[in-house]
Amino acid sequence: MSEKIYLHPITERIWHWIHAILVMLLIISGAQIHWPGSVNFFGNFSNAISLHNWSGILLVCDFFLWLLYNLISKRVSHYIIRKEDIHPGMVVQARFYAYDIFKNSPHPYSPSEDNKFNPLQKATYFQFMFFMMPLLLISGILYMYPSYFSSFISFIGGLKVVAVFHYIMAIIFTAFFVAHIYLATTGHTVISNFIAMITGYEEKEEH
Prior knowledge:
Elements: E1 2-6, H1 10-34, H2 45-73, H3 83-98, H4 119-144, H5 150-155, H6 159-184, H7 192-199, E2 201-205
Antiparallel strand pairs: 1-2
């Protein structure tokens, strides 16, 4: 048996899907920019660059809206790692993903309205949203407007360093995006987490 809880307010759901679309556009357009001879989704190289730049600008705006919303609403607490999340939380959750899930065992942590992420989700989302996302966006802005930040770019080693760093961050985020989609299928059913991000309601498993 399970009960439904309202876990994702509409503001967060709208942000989530806008964020997902922008990230997909950045990944695909970035792939065409790096491998124009093999990837061609947007007609030509110029279109790919234009789409990549505009998607990046929108992602910057999207990120700051997300940050402002979470700080004002205090829903940033969902991302704060507690002592019990570190131990035994992360160990228990890792064991579930690596072993228990294949035995059809129940999830070790059920979401609640004031604590919707499991320990590993908290650690991952906190790291990506508060550290790696700003680094990705900053490197993209530096690479897009090198003339405005020429002194700083020279200080860190030149535009090539910025380009390589942005490329590495893009690979990391692409891997995270793929992993995120896979882990979203590990809910009570394969599509339950996707439905929750549409309706806002998620099933809370009774242990």
